[in-house]
């Protein structure tokens, strides 16, 4: 993914959602839990119902998905970014 | 037209003025964000969606509700109540409500009666007295839900929602609450008050612009219910021609009133900043002042709840020998006092009070009403009563 603003050196992943409200709920949950994550347009290589997804550090992936499940937030999937 | 020296006592219809932050939020949304929420991935559309989402969070917080995605926006509470009642009730179902309802509940229920929904009305006393046990007694084998107005739009009486909710839980029924007059003014807790669906309006106590409202869908409501009334574009599942089955998109199609919701976000921020307790105390003081002043005018009859502690800041009055419409006109034209005259969209309530079809004058101060506004109103009523006395 070409992202000139991307400063992170850690491997990245994205979480896809069914709708933008879900993505925003995800963003809010991460903020509350003090976990890094950023709402970004869905990268071209993934198809998603909603235009935005959450970019996260790949190493946080499992923890974040568990948190979403705990908060009853449905998601479409976790995809690694190269 | 500026507000000037006008005294606005029609907050039960819509709150006015709004906090300046609300006006600024709408202006700023329209000049700096302006996009369609959730329809694109570009930053302005995302910012628009974030504004809407943050409004969901604030609404959820105000009602101690855990899931902002189960906050659904509609154009007003009437649409929310219609969606909920028409989407839940089927032929053969039985509903229990009260004899104090607003037409936003009564008219959909009367429509549903025509397709075979049964209806029971529990009696209410002239000061809004209601016995929760009457709800229990009205339950039948086919009862599915209780629906009721939390606070009367005619005379401010507040019902014991929690006690009625407890009965609904015990009987395994749903409780639908109409909080048009109480949201943003009284503490309401979805869980503690046993509310399954809470319908709210954004432009009264919540201080947002008109064209905002919605409902909170509790987890006891069976999945897929209420059945949506509309279908259309949501910005999600755009490859399919079927309406999405997830919240909030299943109920929210077509472009939302995002500018209005930006205002509602500011209104709810303002409330959370002030604290409900402070708002409540201010309104209670204004209500007591108003009631004491009017009680001293013998020709005026007051219709109200049992006391300021169990009321919102809304009362109805009637001046002996003067039609409510004339009294309303005199207050407006001679004194610049805005009230509402007539039947307040609630014929059932007026029948309960014995004020049907004559109606009443409704006085509803709000947080921004000043003590001197109430004094002026009492003086005006005293003068009009005196003038009327001489004529007779």
3D architecture notes:
The complex is a heterodimer of chains A (82) and B (392). Chain A is α+β, with helices and mostly antiparallel strands and 82 residues long. Helix content of chain A is 28%, strand content 24%. Chain A contains two helices and four strands. In chain A, strands 2-3-1-4 form a four-stranded antiparallel sheet, with helices on one face. Chain B has helices at 20-33, 43-62, 77-88, 103-114, 132-138, 161-170, 258-274, 276-295, 324-335, 347-353, 371-391; strands spanning 7-8, 71-74, 94-98, 118-122, 143-149, 174-178, 197-201, 213-217, 300-303, 315-319, 337-338, 340-342, 360-363. Chain B is globular, with a radius of gyration of 21 Å. Chain B starts with 6 loop residues before the first strand and ends with a helix. With 392 residues, chain B is an alpha/beta fold. Chain B contains eleven helices and 13 strands. The mean pLDDT of chain B is 95. The interface between A and B is medium-sized, with 19 and 27 residues.
Pattern of helices and strands of chain A: EHEEHE
List segments of chain B where confidence is low: pLDDT < 50 over at least 5 consecutive residues: none
What fraction strand of chain B?
5-15%
Distance between the termini of chain A: 7 Å
Helix/sheet category of chain A? alpha+beta
Helicity level of chain B, as a percent range? Answer: 25-40%
Largest sheet of chain B: 7 strands, mixed
Compute the average pLDDT of chain A: 89
Shape of chain B: globular
Mean pLDDT of chain B: 95
For the secondary structure, the number of strands of chain A is: 4
């Amino acid at each position: 993914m070409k992202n000139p603003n991307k400063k992170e050196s850690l491997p990245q992943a994205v979480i896809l959602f069914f709708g933008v409200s879900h993505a925003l709920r995800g963003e809010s949950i991460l903020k509350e839990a003090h976990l890094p994550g950023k709402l970004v347009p869905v990268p071209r290589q993934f198809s998603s119902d909603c235009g935005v997804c959450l970019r996260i550090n790949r190493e946080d992936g499992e923890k974040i998905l568990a948190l979403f499940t705990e908060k009853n937030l449905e998601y479409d999937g976790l995809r690694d970014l190269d | 037209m500026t507000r000037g020296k006008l005294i606005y006592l029609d907050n039960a219809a819509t709150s006015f003025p709004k906090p300046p932050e609300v006006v600024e939020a709408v202006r700023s949304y329209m000049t700096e964000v302006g996009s369609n929420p959730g329809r694109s991935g570009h930053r302005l559309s995302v910012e628009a969606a974030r504004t809407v989402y943050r409004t969901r969070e604030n609404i959820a917080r105000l009602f101690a509700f855990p899931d902002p995605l189960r906050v659904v926006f509609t154009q007003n509470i009437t649409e929310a109540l219609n969606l909920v009642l028409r989407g839940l009730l089927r032929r053969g179902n039985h509903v229990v409500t009260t004899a104090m309802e607003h037409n936003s509940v009564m008219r959909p229920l009367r429509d549903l009666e025509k397709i075979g929904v049964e209806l029971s009305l529990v009696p209410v006393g002239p000061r809004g007295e209601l016995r929760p046990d009457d709800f229990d007694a009205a339950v039948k084998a086919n009862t599915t839900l209780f629906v009721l107005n939390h606070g009367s739009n005619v005379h401010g009486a507040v019902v014991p929602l929690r006690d009625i909710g407890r009965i609904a839980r015990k009987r395994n029924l749903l409780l639908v609450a109409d909080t048009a007059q109480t949201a943003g003014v009284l503490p309401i807790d979805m869980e503690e008050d046993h509310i399954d669906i809470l319908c709210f309006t954004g432009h009264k106590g919540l201080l947002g612009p008109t064209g905002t409202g919605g409902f909170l869908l509790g987890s006891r409501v069976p999945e897929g219910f209420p059945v949506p009334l509309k279908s259309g574009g949501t910005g999600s599942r755009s490859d399919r021609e079927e309406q999405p089955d997830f919240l909030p998109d299943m109920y929210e199609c077509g472009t939302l009133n995002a500018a209005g919701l930006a205002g509602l976000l500011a209104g709810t921020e303002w409330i959370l900043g002030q604290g409900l307790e402070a708002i409540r105390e201010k309104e209670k003081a204004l209500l007591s002042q108003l009631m004491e002043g009017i009680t001293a005018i013998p020709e005026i009859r007051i219709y109200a709840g049992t006391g300021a502690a169990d009321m919102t800041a809304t009362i109805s009055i009637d001046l002996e020998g003067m039609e409510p419409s004339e009294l309303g006109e005199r207050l407006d034209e001679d004194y610049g006092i805005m009230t509402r005259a007539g039947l307040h969209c609630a014929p059932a309530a007026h029948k309960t009070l014995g004020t049907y079809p004559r109606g009443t004058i409704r006085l509803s101060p709000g947080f921004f009403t000043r003590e001197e506004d109430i004094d002026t109103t009492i003086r005006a009523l005293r003068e009009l009563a005196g003038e009327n006395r001489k004529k007779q």
